[in-house]
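DM from R.C. (forwarded with permission)

"hey, sorry to bug you on a friday — could you get me a structure for this? deadline for the figure draft is monday and I only need the backbone to look sensible"
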Amino acid sequence: MESDFIIVGGGSAGCVLANRLSAGGRYRVLLIEAGPSDRRFDIDVPVGYARTYFDPRVNWMFESAPVPSLGNRVIYYPRGKVLGGSGSINAMVFARGQREDFDGWAAAGNPGWSWADLLPFYRAMEDHDLGASDLHGAGGPLHVTQIGRDAHPICNTFFRAAEELGFAHLADLNGAAQEGVGHYQINTRNGQRHSSAKAYLRPALKRPNLTVLTGAHVQRLVLEGRRVVGLRYRRDGVETEIRARREVILAAGAIGSPHLLMLSGIGPAGTLKSFGIDVALDAPAVGENLQDHICYDHYFSARVPTLNNELGRLFGQALAGIKYALLRRGPLSMSLNQAGGFVRSSSAQERPNIQLYFCPLSYEKVGPDSRALIKVNPAPAFSLSISPCRPQSRGYLRLRGPQADTAPEIQPNLLAADEDAREVVEGVQLLRRLAATRALSEIIAAETKPGPGIASAEQILAYVRETAYSIFHPVGTCRMGPDAHGNVVDASLQVHGLQGLRVVDASIFPTIPSANTNAPTMMVAEKGAALILAAANAT
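My reply, with the result:
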């Protein structure tokens, strides 16, 4: 079996690539995904991620190694194992990042990756509720929804509190100005999740030159000298080899792509040899430079109704279900984090360094033995959360065995850098300033977690280390850059030192964007597809 292009991973990036590379009919494209189809009720309904969060049928359910900077806690790392990838199980926030993020990518030696270079790819993606403009696209594959009409009215209290602290209320959190607060934009269409699987892949499935293979776990790449010519995958217990006439493209994400490279003998030579893997290319940067956003939650009981009053009671759940079934509207049609924004934790910051989340709901996270992510108490409550935008801490991903079925070691080193620790304390202090505003103090009954007993900077940092978690934005493990020793791919996303192999997913990010990473991942796939087609059409 042969194809011109073989794409490994049918996630947020892979589905974009499958559509763009198969358009026009010139090239045969094969998309391989280890998980199943995304045609599931819990995926279609936006709040269904409360169930898919711990569903091994669609989720790799990775765990980190003990993290020393978080008291040696093991951090849960959900990753999508389904068409649409993590975009099929995430909270759907569409945030593009700050222009300075991408200008930094270009300045690091990656021509063609500045904000001016990348904005056209963002616009090409979008079918935006706000319509076409210099900043947004209309008529693109991916629908971007403004949720203001259905968001809980308590969000307006949060906006007033933010304005008391001098933060602007923005109608567009992806607009020309990003410093401020507003309703998050999300990837839904007509009240249903609109992942890249729905937006890009489904319209392309009727093309005769596109084949999608699900339930197929890639075991390793096949090399002839320094050229990747194919791969081997296992499906239903049978291992099969397939060949690529032009290129193999890894889109397995920041965990899957470096893992597969190392299993194939592409990585740090010493580590590979220790597991009996023949070294095809000594590439010490594979698996290094892991970056992620940490998240910390502050909980409050409220004097006014919140979503707890609806979703914490059977009657309210039934009403929400009926509204969704009839109108595709209401709380089931959105993410739980309905508002937030990007702000500076202090005047010393040159640009927004803290992402805020406002959730008109307070809930308890439950474990994988439960059928859902959350347990909602009927008493009115809400939460405020922070996520520092540009962490300096760096982790790594390494092999724990030579087989594809052995999950890799994930060490995020969250909050390891002193600057990150200082910034998260500033962020928590900002949450308390928000809570002390007239707008929020009038509706707050009590701060329930952590409570007023956690007051000093030392106490705050200790509590954060005990309770903070990954917000599931791993990037950087196949970093893009000009130096082959410190990076994995070049600016055309080709793996340094090899032919016939590119990586096109969040693992190539040189630095993490100052926002959620799903939209930048799809943008990278749009850019990557253009690079691949330009090279193919030139030969």
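R.C.: lifesaver. The chain has two domains: 2-41+196-291+475-537, 148-183+294-388+416-467.
me: no worries. The CA atoms of residues 215 and 261 lie 20 Å apart.
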